[in-house]
């Protein structure tokens, strides 16, 4: 675990104002008339109200992304890299500010959000920005017959649908490769964690990303379905549950959209007699309790060889007893709240 107990508590950020969709480079009021609330998982208090997108906002976001694609796809890759590198610098400059907002939104310990969420998201953006100028085609020789030339071109308008356990990181995971390769995006954050998506959109704008290249629409599965069924979307990328993945794949198939799905899973950890038992026990604890256990790749099944079973179990128990459950804004906290009361009920069922 990553908690640094010698650091003072991090002050809670001031609640942001009413959240709106971000379309064509600016905040827009929703015409749907629907508003939902963002709730602090650690206090159950309302953080702010969020305007849900309706069909008009989704249409506007897709249209803006389509218009922006014409120029962004032809922007020289080196220039795309420069813009995305400026966004990386802004993310790192505002690491603690964004991390505090992520903790407020998710309840994740600030010791994690300051060292993992924003940091790794910026790393991914930097990685794909660096690859932008390297995307090239290839020539294949067919002796005696000729040759084939393969060209790689931007696909079009992508829809990104995020999850609530790593909101900012996932927004960057989805937007970084898409934007670096010359595509545009309409991103829908999870309705439980809507706060940092617009912050990212504002950072992209400040870095010089043209209006319409990255758009944000808020809402629940109904808004996601508007995106996955929209004829103006060329590709859908989802991080979420298996059942949601099936629905997205079915919806996208009606217009033959490309689909990328990162879904839930159960990862096993195998411990054999010749293993380093200290490292094995540490890995078992970290990969079950990190992010309050809310990670799809966590090692939620630990299989230990009979010869070392009791020793490994004792080492795990000893580390577990030292874990601190508490205020996620206290850097000494290892485990914060689950994302919602409904999620807790599912865990306990």
- The overall number of domains is 2
Low-confidence stretches: none
> What portion of residues is helical?
40-55%
Report how far the terminal alpha carbons are from each other. Answer: 27 Å
CATH top level assignment of the largest domain: Alpha Beta
Averaged pLDDT: 94
Number of strands: 13
Oligomer: single chain
- Under CATH, the topology of the largest domain can be stated as Aldehyde Dehydrogenase, Chain A, domain 1
Tell me the major beta sheet.
5 strands, parallel
Order of helices and strands: EEEEHHHHEEEHEHEHEHEEHEHH
The CATH superfamily label of the largest domain reads Aldehyde Dehydrogenase, Chain A, domain 1
Number of separate helices: 11
**Strand order of the main beta sheet, please?**
9-8-7-10-11
Strand content bin:
15-25%
Radius of gyration: 22 Å
Main structural class: alpha/beta
Shape: globular
């Amino acid at each position: 675990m990553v908690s640094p107990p010698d650091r003072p508590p991090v002050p809670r950020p001031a609640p942001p104002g009413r959240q709106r969709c971000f379309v064509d480079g600016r905040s827009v009021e929703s015409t749907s008339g629907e508003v939902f609330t963002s709730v602090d998982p650690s206090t159950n208090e309302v953080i702010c109200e969020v305007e849900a997108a309706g069909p008009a906002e989704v249409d506007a976001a897709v249209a803006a992304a389509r218009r922006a694609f014409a120029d962004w796809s032809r922007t020289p890759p080196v220039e795309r890299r420069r813009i995305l590198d400026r966004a990386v610098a802004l993310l790192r400059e505002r690491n603690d500010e964004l991390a505090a907002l992520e903790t407020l939104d998710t309840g994740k310990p600030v010791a994690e959000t300051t060292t993992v969420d924003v940091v790794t998201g910026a790393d991914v953006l930097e990685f794909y920005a660096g690859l932008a100028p390297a995307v090239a085609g290839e020539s294949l020789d067919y002796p005696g017959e000729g040759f084939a030339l393969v060209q790689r071109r931007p696909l079009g308008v992508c829809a990104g649908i995020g999850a609530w356990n790593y909101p900012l990181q996932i927004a960057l995971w989805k937007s970084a490769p898409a934007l670096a390769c010359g595509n545009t995006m309409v991103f829908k954050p999870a309705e439980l964690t809507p706060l940092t998506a617009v912050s990212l959109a504002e950072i992209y704008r400040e870095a010089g990303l043209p209006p319409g290249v990255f758009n944000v629409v808020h809402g629940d599965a109904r808004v996601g379905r508007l995106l996955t069924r929209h004829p103006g979307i060329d590709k859908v990328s989802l991080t979420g549950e298996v059942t949601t993945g099936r629905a997205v794949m079915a919806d996208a198939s009606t217009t033959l959209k490309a689909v990328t799905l990162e879904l839930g899973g159960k990862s096993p950890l195998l411990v054999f007699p010749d293993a380093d038992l200290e490292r094995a026990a540490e890995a078992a604890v970290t990969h079950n309790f990190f992010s309050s256990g809310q990670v799809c790749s966590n090692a939620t099944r630990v299989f230990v060889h009979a010869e070392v079973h009791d020793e490994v179990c004792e080492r795990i128990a000893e580390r577990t007893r030292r874990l601190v459950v508490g205020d996620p804004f206290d850097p000494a906290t290892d485990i914060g709240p689950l994302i919602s009361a409904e999620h807790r009920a599912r865990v306990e069922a």
